[in-house]
Amino acid sequence: MNNTFKMIIGAGFAVAVAFYANSIVGQSAHGGFLILAAVFGAYMAMNIGANDVANNVGPAVGSGALTIGGAILIASIFEASGALIAGGDVVGTIKKGIIDPAAFGNDPMTFVYAMSAALLAAALWLNLATWLKAPVSTTHSIVGGVLGGGIAAGGFAIVSWGTMGKIAASWVISPVLGGVIAAIFLYIIKSQILYREDKLSAAKKIVPILVAVMAAAFVTYLTVKGLKKVWPVIVEFLSFLPQTKKPGIGIALIFGAIAALITFTIVKPRIAKKVIGMENTRDAINILFTIPLIFAAALLSFAHGANDVANAVGPLAAVYDALINTEVSTKVSIPLWVMVVGGVGISVGLALFGPRLIRTVGSEITELDQMRAFSIMMAASITVVIASQLGLPVSSTHIAVGAIFGVGFLREWLDSKEMGAKQEKLKVETDKQSTLKMELDTHKGDEDYKKQVELISAVKAQKKKVKSLKRSLRENYVKRGMVKKIIAAWVITVPAAAVLSAIIFFILKGVAN
Q1: Which residues make Cβ contacts (< 8 Å) with residue 176, sequence separation at least 6?
Q2: Which spans in 364-395 are helix H?
Q3: CB-CB neighbours of 468 under 10 Å
Q4: Please, are residues 371 and 407 in contact by the beta-carbon 8 Å criterion?
Q5: For residues 157 and 159, what is the distance between their CA atoms, to the nearest angstrom?
Q6: Burial annotation 177-201 (CB, 10 A radius, 16+ → b, else e)
Q7: Helices (H), 275-395
Q8: What is the pLDDT along the chain (513 residues), one digit of tens a residue?
Q9: Distance (Å, rounded) from C-alpha 320 to C-alpha 337?
Q10: Nearest to residue 39, comparing CAs of 17, 10, 61, 57?
């Protein structure tokens, strides 16, 4: 499918959304701005699909557990399902509390201009980042858009700089946490399975435990992040559960423990049966992680749809509420049609433009196989749960990409360590040969001397080769150029979206007046 045809399909989706928005507002005053915001929302949703969703399925594709077509199908279904089934029904109109709603002076149209500008700015930035092959945070993009629109409307004084400081901190917290946790799990796999002489026996013991831990992590994650909307319905049917508005971490951990126990009971005999007749090799062990990876991709996509889509289309819901009620609200209900725009738009964007970033995340940062991808998926779920309970501001995009960095740097460190040991051995051997050469200097004409000199030369050449290989490890295991590009994109996401939003705000306001 060529790019022109893809753009026609994307434009067709946006036009369909515009027609529906027009049927809602009819001839009402300022109804054109809802149509405009709806188009911006559709464009934003497609860009989320093109950029953000790659983090959920990229590792599975890069490892070979899923094809790109299979990943797109699974992610499309589960992203849309998460948005429509478990997506938030209420969203804050001012994302993350970064600006004061009073800044708009209860002027709904100024608010509409700011939120519309935020949507378009975030979408444009995501579009550019996708083109540059840089996975960036959707949440940070929309935060930057709201920040820029708010400053344009009310000045710098309205910004909650403390909140912005926490968001900036997440640029470091998210990737470091994700990288450390992913590296820990990969090291466990290497030390407890791959470095053992009988890999199959070790895998038979360890893999069921790891898959059970994964089940616990994902069920805990989904309970905390994905069941907020349907929790009242769940507790109505299951009266023995805590009668709360949303699930707490305690009940989520209990659900996770139950899931781990059930998973372990199911997986253990299957793994034991699977390893019979398998080769005692790394490639054979990798196969054992394939099915868990497919489940992980589906669950991450569902959780992303449930948790992040509402944030992304929140400004569209805010515009709709402001135009219908002619006032600025701090929290608004998200109409079903807005969630449909978000859910379907993500699927459309993923199918049309997602492969570009899926390949980047899956194979252009570091080389992945199933066990490395499994470690990354584990880190993505566990880090979000830990961070949310500690109140740390994290980005799912930064966590996933940071986990990929962590896996790559662990591989580099382990192999550098092994090569360093070889280099030290060669150094000792070289020193011995040098001593021997000095002793043989008095017998320069002897045949033994000539052979010894040749041996010394060979050892020195091998030593230089090892040094050269160590230098090349840095680029082969983690692509430094890609890392620098991605980090730069992360750092400028908020300011870039903010500047774009401010410019668009003044354009919209000027056109309207």
Answers
A1: 402
A2: 370-390
A3: 10
A4: no
A5: 6
A6: bbbebbbbbbeebbebbbeeeebbe
A7: 282-287, 290-325, 336-363, 370-390
A8: 677 888 899 999 999 999 998 888 766 667 788 899 999 999 999 998 898 888 888 899 999 999 999 999 999 888 888 888 776 655 555 555 677 666 676 788 888 899 899 999 999 999 999 998 888 888 888 889 988 988 898 888 777 787 778 777 877 888 898 999 999 999 999 999 999 999 999 999 999 999 999 999 888 888 877 677 677 778 877 777 777 777 778 888 998 999 999 999 999 999 999 998 899 998 899 999 999 999 988 888 887 887 777 766 788 888 888 888 888 877 777 788 888 888 889 889 998 998 888 888 888 888 889 999 999 988 888 887 787 777 666 777 888 888 998 998 888 888 777 655 555 565 555 555 555 555 555 555 555 555 555 665 665 566 566 555 555 555 567 777 888 888 888 889 989 999 999 999 999 988 877
A9: 11
A10: 17
Please name the helix (run of DSSP H) or strand (run of DSSP E) that holds residue 115, with its range, or none: helix 108-131
**Closest of 4, 44, 51, 43 to residue 359, by C-alpha:** 51
Give strand ranges (E) for 87-221.
Answer: 90-92
- Cα–Cα distance, 205 to 129 (Å, whole number): 43
Rounded to two decimals, the pTM is: 0.83
CA-CA distance, 507 to 154, in Å (whole number)?
Answer: 16
What does the block give as tokens for 448? 């033994």
Structure-token pair, residue 218: 């994902």
Element containing residue 331 per DSSP (H, E): strand 331-333
Q: Which residue bears the tokens 């017998």?
A: 443
Q: How far apart are the C-alpha atoms of 485 and 503, rounded to whole Å?
A: 25
User: Is residue 177 within 8 Å of residue 167, measured between CB atoms?
Assistant: no
